[in-house]
C-alpha cells in the first residue's frame, strides 16, 4: 500500500488569522514608510532641516528596492510554491544515503 503524504488543507480560520496578522504588521509599516518618504522628499527639496539624513534615507530606499527585487525574483521563479518539497527531497535523499551505506557495509 503506497501512502502519499500531503500538506493538510488550510482552513478558513487560519487564512483569516494570517490575513489579520499581515494587516496588523503591514499597515503600520506602510504608514511609517510613507511618512519617512514624505520627509525624504521635503528634505530633498530643501524645505526642512535635516539634510544630514539624506544619505541614510537613500540607503533605506535602495535596501527596500533590493528586497522587493529579490522578493519578485523568488516569486517569479516559484520559490513559494510547494514549500514542503525541499523537506521531502531532503528526507528521500537521506533515506537513499542510508540504503547506500548499508549496501556498502554489507559488501
Brief sketch in words of this structure:
This protein is mostly helical and 107 residues long. It has three helices and no strands.
H/I helix tally = 3
Give the topology string: H per helix, E per strand.
HHH
In round numbers, the mean pLDDT is: 82
Structural class, judged by helices and strands? mainly alpha
Main features:
107 residues; mainly alpha; 3 helices; elongated
Topology summary:
Blueprint: H1 12-45, H2 54-76, H3 85-106
Question: Can you put this structure into words, describing what you see?
Answer:
It is a single chain. This protein has helices spanning 12-45, 54-76, 85-106. By secondary structure, it is mainly α. It has one domain (12-106). It is elongated. The model has no long low-confidence stretch (mean pLDDT 82).
Amino acid at each position: 500500500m503506497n501512502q502519499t503524504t500531503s500538506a493538510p488543507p488550510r482552513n478558513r480560520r487560519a487564512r483569516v488569522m494570517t490575513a489579520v496578522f499581515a494587516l496588523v504588521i503591514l499597515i503600520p509599516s506602510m504608514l511609517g514608510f510613507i511618512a519617512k518618504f514624505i520627509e525624504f522628499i521635503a528634505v530633498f527639496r530643501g524645505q526642512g532641516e535635516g539634510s544630514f539624513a539624506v544619505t541614510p534615507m537613500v540607503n533605506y530606499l535602495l535596501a527596500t528596492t533590493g528586497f522587493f527585487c529579490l522578493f519578485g525574483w523568488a516569486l517569479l521563479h516559484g520559490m513559494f510554491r510547494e514549500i514542503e518539497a525541499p523537506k521531502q527531497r531532503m528526507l528521500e535523499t537521506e533515506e537513499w544515503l542510508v540504503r547506500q551505506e548499508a549496501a556498502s557495509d554489507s559488501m
